[in-house]
Amino acid sequence: MAIPRNQSSIFVDLMWREVKAVVAKDLKMELRQRHSIGGVLLYIIASVFVAYLGFKQVTNVATWNALFWIIALFASFNAAARSFSAETEGRKLYLFSLASAEAVVVGKMLYNAILLLIMVFLGFAIYILMLGSTPLLDANWGALILSLVLGATGLSFTLTLVSALAAQTDNNLGMMAVLGLPVILPLILLIIRFSKNALDGIAWSVNGVYAWQIVAVTILSLGLSYILFPYLWRE
Hints:
Oligomer: single chain
Distance between the termini: 46 Å
Order of helices and strands: HHHHHHHHH
Mean pLDDT: 83
Number of domains: 1
Number of strands: 0
Radius of gyration: 19 Å
Structural class: mainly alpha
């Protein structure tokens, strides 16, 4: 006779099914409206091209690194701003019947993380092609790739929460800037420091503390969203 699963296991399974449904819904909508993701990609390419016209080639590691993350930050704002503002009243009602509020916000975070991971790695490749790879000569590639993964995930999780708050107002983009920059500033400083040390080839024993701090901020954003979003969703 099979041993029945406990209630917590059933809850996790149900939650995971709802999260996957939210991610699948957003993916289908993105594929139907390719202009939106194309707009974010065009923004990245245009920003890198403008940087190329201004600098031609950047050899200073700190400048090269900071410039990339500035471009990635504003691309992340453009991508995350659509998380809730693009939802019509009918779609919100559909989501309300499809999944719990907790599953909706977690699903939105996971979808934005996947989207930004693709954008960051693609933007990084374009950035290297246009602005040169000289700062990568001494890089610790394992830590550098980890910085891209943690940076994209941290930005997506934090900005999804900000987007949920801003969507409750009429001026979504304006509120995204007002609410987002103070919240995102400590995170982006940690990401820049971690990736700069990775480019310098600094050992993990020294640089690892920044990675754990980025993970902590990301988990904090996830926890706050899980707790606060149900109250916003009821509105």
